[in-house]
Every structure is written in structure tokens, then in C-alpha cells.
Amino acid sequence: MTQRKILFFASKSYDENTFRAALKSLNGQDKLHFTFLEMMLVIQKSWKKYMACDTVKIIALRSAGYSGSSVEIAKQYGLHVCRVPSYSPHAVAEHAVALLLSLNRNMHHAFFRTKQHNFSLDGLVGIDLFGKTVGIIGAGIVGMCAIKIFLGFGCKVLAYDIKPNENAAREQGFQYVTIDELLTESDIISLHAPLNDSTYHLINREALNKMKFDAMLINTSRGPLVDAKALVDCLKSGKLRGAALDVYEHEDKYFYKNYSQRIMNDDILARLISMHNTIMTSHQAFLTEEALKTIAESIIQNFLEFFNQLQTDGVKE
């Protein structure tokens, strides 16, 4: 097979290290040549330019979903689009629980206090998770992992999903309910739903008003599931105990970048970060060695199979 050239956009050091190791393990060094670029492939400005090139054959997304990509436009140019169907759902579920534990027990405050030799405990009181009701919105692969973890804490788990798995509910000991029941009965709500037209701003002002007083909201799924402005207003009112977010609906401009020496113009994001009862991470729920390895191997395997098929079909390149 002729060595194929791959442009890798928005590359970080951990991406390059993982992909080079995966290339070696899959014996793909002689078949694929990666050029790692820090620049992003901005769909609105450069997507069509790259697709119009006759030499571009395939676009691979390092994500489980297609949000943000125009698959239909790609098809118009005869391009193949692939993704990573699943990568370490445990990583995302574990991060959701880590965020909850940190938020609930005020770890973010305790960490900085002890760094300053302040060992007081005022303001650090949390609650037992044991016996609390946890609502899981989206009981797919990641949601199921989260359910198992919360059941291990001794929580009562409610779940909402458009395709309920009643067998799993009976076997594991959780219950499917309506979205309204979940919102009104849960002490903790964790989002694990995909982003689509029906889930955009699923947690809006109306949904937040239905939630219990002193509830906690966790989102490690997609930013636009939550109306960020409505969440800020709800937190300001004092209704929620707190929110822990790994995603944000307007994150593209800021996440994965260093803004420590720059002005951040997103007032909603700045307000969320500044609140004492919020924790935010930069879309890192997936970031484990196992997940990165799975992503790299899946994408490389997609490339190898695609180019092998081109060669078999005798397609002109």
C-alpha cells in the first residue's frame, strides 16, 4: 500500500505520543504518515477548502458524535467521514463522579486553603451520598457505567432514556422514570445524553425550576444540553447546591487553550468559573491513557481499512 498522508489538526503532545505508539503497534508506520498540527480545522472557514481538494478522501473525527461537523456537505464532495464509536465510557463516568465528590466535599476550596496553610474547616461541610437519589439522564454506555458507580455508593438511582433497558434496570436495581419525575425527585442529576435537536437546552430555565432545592447538577456530556445563562441565574438565586461541569455550550473558543494571560470575553463562562459552588474542567472527562489508546487505534484502523478498500476497488487517487 502507498503511504498515505494524514493531517492531524488540533494536536496536543498526548495525541502525538499516543498515535505514534498506536501506529507502531498496528504496523502502520509504512502505510500512514501523520503530520501533527496545532492549528484547528475550523469548519466555517476552512472545511470546504480542504474538501474541495481531489486528494482528500476521508475525514476522521476524534469523537463519538458528529456534532460540529457537516456530514452532508462532506458527502457532497464524495468524502468518507468516520468517528470513534466508543472510547472508555468508564473514563467519562468516573470523571462525572470525581466532579461530584469534589463539589460536594468542597475539595477545590480545601486544596487551596491547605496550600496557604489554612486548615480551618468552616464552609467545607458536604453531604453523604449514601441514601441520596441520583438522576441519570441518558442511560447509554456511559450512563450505565455511572449508574453502577452510584449504586456502589448506596444511592437510589433514577434514569431517563428514550430507549429504556428494563432488563438492566431489574438486574442492577435502578428505575426508569419520566424526565419530570427525575427532575423533581433527584438530589443529584448527572447528564449523559447525546446532543441533538431534542436534547438542546434540555436543562433550561423550566427544568431548573423543577429541580429540588439544594440539588447538584453534573454535566460531562455535551455543553449545549444546559442553558448556561439559565444555570447562572439559578445558581445566583441560591436554589442549587452547586454545579460541576466538564463541558460548556460555548466552549470552542476557550477550551484546550491557555487564557491565563488573556482577557476572556464570555461573561457567562467567567461567572460560572468565579462562583464558589461550581467546578469546571476543560472537557477532559475522556482524558485517560486507556481512552487515548482506544481513540488512536480506532482511527488508525479506520484509515487502514478505508485505504485498503480503495486499493481493492481500484479507485483512482
What would you say about this model in short?
Keywords: NAD, Oxidoreductase. GO terms for molecular function: NAD binding; oxidoreductase activity, acting on the CH-OH group of donors, NAD or NADP as acceptor. Helix content is 40%, strand content 14%.
What does this structure look like?
The chain is an alpha/beta fold. The chain has twelve helices and eleven strands. It has a seven-stranded parallel β-sheet, sandwiched between helices. The protein has a two-stranded parallel sheet with strand order 1-2. A two-stranded parallel ribbon has the order 3-4. It starts with a strand and ends with a helix. Helix 1 (13-25) packs across helix 12 (289-313) and helix 4 (89-104) crosses helix 6 (141-152). The longest helix has 25 residues, at 289-313. Helices cover 40% and strands 14% of the residues. It has helices at residues 13-25, 43-51, 71-76, 89-104, 107-115, 141-152, 166-172, 179-185, 205-210, 228-237, 267-274, 289-313; strands spanning 4-8, 32-36, 58-60, 80-82, 133-137, 156-160, 175-176, 188-191, 216-219, 242-245, 278-280. The chain has two domains: 4-87 and 288-313, NAD(P)-binding Rossmann-like Domain (Rossmann fold, 3-Layer(aba) Sandwich), CATH 3.40.50; 89-280, 3-Layer(aba) Sandwich (Rossmann fold), CATH 3.40.50.
